[in-house]
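chain below, 234 aa
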Amino acid sequence: MTQPFRTGETYRSTVLDWVTVTYQPDHLHICSAKKLETISSAVWGGGFGHADAIVNWRVPLTYRAADPQAMMRDQLFIWGYAPERTIGLMTAAKLTHAALSEEEGDAFRLLACTTAGTGNAARAGKVARTYPAYQCGTINTVLIIEGCMSQAAMVNALMTAVEAKAAAMQDAKVVSAAGELATGTTSDAIVLAVSQHGFAETHMFAGTATTIGDAIARHVYQTVCEAVRTQKEE
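prediction:
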């Protein structure tokens, strides 16, 4: 695991030689040389789709927008990225403290990247206040996998990742405004991007008892813990 952007601006994956992550003061740009099948809760490009780039945009804690999708689309044009091939996330967390982790395993290769701001930490099922508009604070996690996964396994992978995030938050003793152990923040987002080639086998499941699910859980847990732990550091 590493936090490369505390000292540098470019990270080239060691297990996915076609993936590069670049730091800019206002965003991280994850670039893939391959078209990826995606599922995400992203503000731009969410749901099922295809992309070869993922952007994590840092916005102020005071950020408010009546139409965050239009705002993201316009910003992608400003940066020179193709909106139709890009997934867009927003965060108020420090991008310099993004935590990355990688692994080559059983018919898969995996890269996890997490940024974590916890100012609006909450415990699912006990949120004291809800909002009609988009809010930022946000734990954003990106998982890029070389390998083949069914769509059901991709959904399963998201479940596993969210469980790992909640475990990391509780083990890090992050608390909500009500003083309860948090399971996340009120505006978390996740992206899973899969190559759908590279190995003969297709993963049909991605729960914690599977090799791929175990890897997803460990790397999400580790990157969330690291990003949360260091967020207040310089």
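The chain is about 25% helix and 35% strand. The mean pLDDT is 93.
thats it, cya
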